[in-house]
Structure formats: C-alpha cells, structure tokens
From TrEMBL:
This is UTP--glucose-1-phosphate uridylyltransferase. Keywords: Nucleotidyltransferase, Transferase. The keyword Isomerase does not apply. Its EC number is 2.7.7.9. Residues 13-276 form the Nucleotidyl transferase domain. Transmembrane segments: none annotated. Belongs to the UDPGP type 2 family. One of its GO terms (biological process) is UDP-alpha-D-glucose metabolic process. GO terms for molecular function: UTP:glucose-1-phosphate uridylyltransferase activity. Signal peptide: none annotated. NCBIfam families: galU.
Amino acid sequence: MAETQPAVPTVTKAVVPAAGLGTRFLPATKATPKEMLPILDKPAIQYVVEEAVAAGLDDVLVITGRSKRSIEDHFDRAYELEEALRAKGDTRRLRSVQATSELAQMHYVRQGDPRGLGHAVLCAAAHVGREPFAVLLGDDLIGEVDALLARMIEVRETYGGSVVALMEVDPENVSSYGCAAVEPADEPDVVTVTDLVEKPPVESAPSRWVIIGRYICDPAVFDVLRETPPGRGGEIQLTDALRELAGRGADEGGPVHGVLFPGRRYDTGNTVDYLRTVVEFACRRPDLAAEFLPWLRSFVAEKDNPQT
C-alpha cells in the first residue's frame, strides 16, 4: 500500500478557465461565450460547475475575459425572470432558474491577455492561495455517474502532489493532447507520471495515455508557472509546469500521479463533437428520449436509404 502523506490539505476550490475566444464556433461565439453554448437546456459551463459541486468543491473561480459577462449573469439572481415565472405559476422553471444562483460560491477574475492554460491558472493564484485546487476545463464534460473528480481528490489525499486525469486514445490522436509517460503505482487505476509532453508527434509520444481536462494541482504549481517560459504555440502551458513538478519530491510540490479514466467523456471543443454530445445527452434524458429517439432512428434510416 502507498504510504499516506501526513496533513494533506483538503481540496475545496475549483478553477474553471473560460477566457478562450471560441473561434471554432464563430460566428455563434462572436458575442456569446463558447462556455454558454447550450447542451440541451443548460449551458456547458453549468455542467462543469455542477460536477465540481458534486465532488464537494463549493468555491468556484471562473477565469473570464472580454465578452464573458453572460457567464456571471447566468450564475447570478434574475429577479425579473423569477417574478415572471412565479406569476405564471411555473414552479418547475422557477426552481431551475433559482438553482443556478445557489450552486456554489462563484467568483470571477479576468485574464486580460490570454496566454495559454498555464497563464489562466496563474490568474487564480491570489484567490487560491497556498491550497490545493481543482482545474476543470469546460471543453470536457464528464459523465455524472463516473465521479472522476472525487476519485482524483482521493488520490491527492493519499499521495500528495498533483493529479491529472488520463484517458487512453488511439495512437493517431495523441498529438492533439498532452501525453504522459507513466509507471504503475500501488492501485490499479493510479499511475505515477514521470514525464509530460504537450501535443507530441505520434512517433515520439511517450504513451497512449493523454490528459483530459481535469487536474488537481498542488499550490507549488503557481511558483513554477511564474518561471515557465512560453512553450508550444507561444503559450504558457500547464503541462510544462506539471512536468517540472513530476520530478520533485513531496516537500517541493511533487510528485504527479494520474487517474486512469475508463468512463464517459464528452468533448465539446469542436463542432462535430459538440453535436455528438448534444445528441447523446438527449438520448440519455428520459423526458426527451421517448420522442427524440424514434425521430432520430427514422432520420438516420432515411439518410441511409434515400428515396430514388
């Protein structure tokens, strides 16, 4: 069994970077943050905040930028809307609107100059302080029954240091992610990360295990990020900082472990994967699937066998 690290602080804060321009979804994201694009009847970022809250993180800091005010408005009270719904007796929608403003303690800070994920995380330093914290990327939605974040917090409490979520992908896809070199640890779903490479060429990738958008970071990552030069794409990469921490001992902010995730991950970072996510979420919703699935089957059958 792994030797438990003494007095490891509990994770209570989550950081959600949301300052990206969303260029893959233009012109829809010209004035609407990509994080506010709907997955059925909730914006994508609400699923992320709900995931953090379900894992016990009730303090959520969103890293925003220009044209992101609607994110703050979404998690704030909407008194006029509430009164209108109350007057109509629409208690179901009233409860859903009120619930968004009661999810968590929401905080916001602007990333004035978007210089990569590492820079976005560094913007959280004043709020987080010297506590471990979670980072949740809005492009990745995790199946709510999979409890990935809660498992990562457990691993942090056992081993200390930082923890990344890893998923195995086909070799041709490794160059789209941060890729990890790993060694077995004392639990079947946990590995020790020995190296990290951001978007490596297929032929030089250290493994097929890639980082998906969930991290538990030791606060030592802030000092490393301050000294991390721009990397791939001219941006400050969180991967580079975690690579530095992976070579350190527990008294210096290391090590880095990975949780091997076999569950459901939904990528909303590009148009096709976004559409797949919307369709799958609709098919999993009992109140929608009864009507939507028969239509979908009919539509697909029609496309597979067009009338001549």
